[in-house]
Design a protein that fits this description.
By secondary structure, the chain is mainly β. It contains one helix and 49 strands. It is globular and about 105 Å long. 29% of the residues are buried.
């Protein structure tokens, strides 16, 4: 995407603004589910309805989540109002990139507080929307419909899985970032076989602020219990290689309210980032930490030491034997064995020394592999609390593979200490049957409970409605059946058509694109001007599969929200080679629940050809490499071309109008040639082809 790593080349399209409205017609994702379970001696029924709506409201983006349960009734709705601007042009001199009201998150701060996603309040920031939420950690969160789950992959290794919470959101809080590439991939799975992938990429060593730059994050909210959480943090660019940080935070902690002040420095040297932070709490507790991040032989290394003096926070709980020092070491690497085989490696060590001298250790390791369509991941964790010899150790092994169109996944959770035993195992398969139908089968074994459960579902996820039928049965003679209905709705503004889809669309943007033949060259579709069918587009330079209909209209759904998005008209899809778009593309910023209306005016163009000659001592011969310019009535150079070795040139794609054709004055002066004058060029509305427009040049010394 524009503004993100990966070598994207900005095509320089003009920005097309989409004004906010006082109120708009919302996009709605809604789910209706019913179920019947037989467990033990009781039989229960379940029913629920959820809706996620996005639109323009009061000149802002609005997002509303509401749900109702058959037995529990309606839950408290979640409403967020705000604006996002990737150019940081909000609130005048504040230069904010995001301003939010209502249900807002509060970012986490290392050693003090974890990210908090729920609460009503206000949040604003000028931090770029495509950068991490803080220096060395990043929180990924968003809206998620009921029944969906999302997998997070970090540098191609599976990190975790989340399901939709009661508030219709998911969150992967405070994911650590390493020196070098940090590639996050979110894979969304819907209950009806839907699949969506999002990617985010960061380079930590490129996060230094330029001299004089200032980033800020301000947020405050109250949760449902009325507890207040406030954050203000700042980051300055002091020099080319030095940044300073400062912040203040208040949060509820152990039935009390604590306030913290923090100062820090970050130095960006060659291949090394050095950090120093100091925190003081309002109860007198103090923390000082030094850290380093670098890369050695392709392995990203992070190390830190923190010294505490009566310091408590969400990361350091109070107790009779508090932590005095904490040492952490983290290594991230990628082992390649040639071809498509690679093995992401991760190792994290943490050691706490307590006031009594006791030592607590925590070791986490993950080895992953990917090759030939198979993904494997095994994660281990070992904890030793206060000198316990064996401590506690557990692990999780996961596998995923696609075979002949069938997706296979499996997971095994186990313990190694204090006892060796298997905890549970799951296996699942999904099979695409065609026409939008998917068959899902699953098997789960709970070893301690001696329970075996089989499940299955048949889902339809194409067309205007998503429908799923599911059931399960266990060896405890428990069973259940259910039905789930999903529909996303939105209004196409040009034809006032109600669109219905089986895929969510409320949390993303959309475009209504019209392509027409502009006969009077005013750039506006007037009466009698026909739409162009079969025209295609590019989205951020990638070819899009949508084509215009007979009226010249195309619907581009699920555009990335709050990001620069370049929409171009693909000239290769126009049926007449003389047709050219007056504007090759536009840059928009899609937003949820809003349709960007884009017009591409196409005109019939003309062409001119001829030969360039050199006159010298009475002889006339073709000469190449002369730069020719086409100049319009406003004296603007609208096209250039260089004649071939034999002097021939052909200039195509000239819009109707009056021009003059000339040899570049700068080239004439540089080569010491006389000005041969100009050729008057007139291209009619039906596309004129002019032949034999020759130009003669003569050396100044041959006058």
């Amino acid at each position: 995407l524009p503004g993100s790593p990966g070598g994207y080349v900005d095509p320089g399209y003009p920005r097309l603004a989409t004004p906010y409205r006082l109120a708009g017609v919302p996009f709605i994702d809604q789910t209706l589910a019913f179920g019947l379970d037989q467990r033990g001696a009781g039989r229960t029924t379940a029913g629920s309805w959820t809706a996620f709506l996005t639109t323009d409201l009061l000149g802002m983006e609005a997002a509303l989540y509401a749900s109702r349960d058959l037995h529990a009734g309606a839950s408290r709705p979640r409403l967020t109002l705000g604006r996002h601007d990737p150019d940081a042009g909000l609130l005048g001199p504040l230069g904010a990139s995001s301003v939010l009201l209502g249900s807002v998150p509060v970012p986490g701060v290392a050693n003090i507080a974890r990210s908090s996603a729920s609460g009503n309040g206000i949040a604003l920031s000028n931090r770029p929307l495509d950068q991490p939420t803080s220096f060395d950690r990043h929180t990924l969160q968003g809206d998620l419909a009921p029944g969906w789950d999302v997998e997070l992959y970090y540098n191609e290794a599976l990190v975790g899985v989340r399901q939709a919470g009661a508030d219709g959101k998911y969150s992967f809080e405070d994911q650590p970032l390493a020196y070098g590439p940090n590639e996050f991939r979110l894979v969304f799975h819907g209950p009806l076989g839907q699949l969506r992938v999002e990617r985010q990429s960061f380079l930590l060593e490129q996060s230094a602020l330029r001299r004089g730059a200032l980033f800020y994050d301000l947020a405050a909210h109250r949760d449902r219990a009325g507890r207040e959480r406030v954050l203000a943090q700042f980051e300055w660019g002091l020099g080319t290689y030095l940044n300073a940080t400062a912040g203040w935070q208040r949060l509820p902690l152990f039935d009390a309210t604590r306030s913290y002040a923090k100062l820090g420095l970050r130095s960006y040297l060659n291949s090394v980032i050095l950090t120093a932070d100091a925190v003081r709490a309002d109860d007198g507790g103090k923390l000082a930490q030094l850290g380093v991040k670098t890369q050695v032989a392709g392995v990203a290394l992070s190390a830190s030491r923190a010294r505490l003096d009566g310091f408590t926070s969400e990361f350091f709980t109070p107790g009779g034997d508090p932590v005095r020092t904490r040492d952490e070491l983290r290594a991230e690497g990628l082992l390649r064995l040639g071809g498509a085989h690679f093995f992401p490696l991760s190792l994290q060590l943490r050691q706490d020394v307590l006031a009594s001298g006791a030592v607590q250790r925590d070791v986490q390791a993950r080895l992953s592999a990917y090759g030939n369509g198979t993904a494997l991941s095994n994660a281990l964790r070992w904890q030793s609390l206060g000198g316990v010899d064996r401590g506690r150790a557990d692990g999780s092994f996961q596998i995923s593979r696609r075979v002949a169109g069938i997706g296979l996944t499996g997971q095994l959770n186990y313990m190694l200490a204090p006892v060796d035993r298997l905890v549970n195992a799951t296996a699942a398969a999904d099979w695409g049957l065609g026409n939008g139908y998917t068959l899902n089968l699953g098997l789960t074994r709970m070893f301690q409970e001696r329970e075996l459960r089989a499940s299955g579902s048949l889902n339809k996820s194409l067309g205007s409605v998503g429908l799923g039928l599911s059931g399960f049965y266990s060896n405890r003679r428990e069973y259940g059946i259910g039905v789930r209905l999903f529909m996303a709705m939105g209004l196409e503004p040009r034809g006032r058509r109600l669109l219905r889809e089986a895929q969510p669309m409320a949390n993303m943007g959309a475009g209504s694109v019209r392509v027409f033949l502009d006969k009077n060259l005013n750039g506006v579709k007037d009466a009698g001007e026909e739409g162009i069918a079969g025209a295609g587009f590019t989205v951020n330079s990638a070819h899009h599969g949508v084509r215009t209909d007979a009226a010249g209209l195309a619907w581009l759904p699920r555009l990335p929200a709050s990001r620069h998005t370049d929409i171009g008209l693909d000239p290769d899809t126009l049926e007449d080679p003389q047709w050219q778009a007056q504007v090759k593309g536009v840059r928009i910023v899609p937003r949820p629940g809003k349709v960007n209306q884009i017009d591409f005016a196409v005109s019939i163009t003309g062409e001119v050809d001829g030969t360039t000659y050199l006159l010298r001592k009475g002889a006339r011969r073709p000469v190449g490499d002369l730069q020719l310019e086409l100049v319009d009535a406003a004296h603007r150079v609208v096209a250039t071309i260089t004649s071939a070795a034999d002097g021939y040139y052909v200039m195509t794609g000239i819009f109707p109008g009056k021009y003059v054709l000339r040899v570049s004055p700068e080239q004439l002066q540089r080569l010491g040639l006389m000005d041969p004058g100009v050729q008057a060029i007139t291209i009619g509305a039906d596309g004129t082809v002019l032949n034999g427009r020759d130009l003669d040049v003569r050396p100044l010394d041959d006058a």
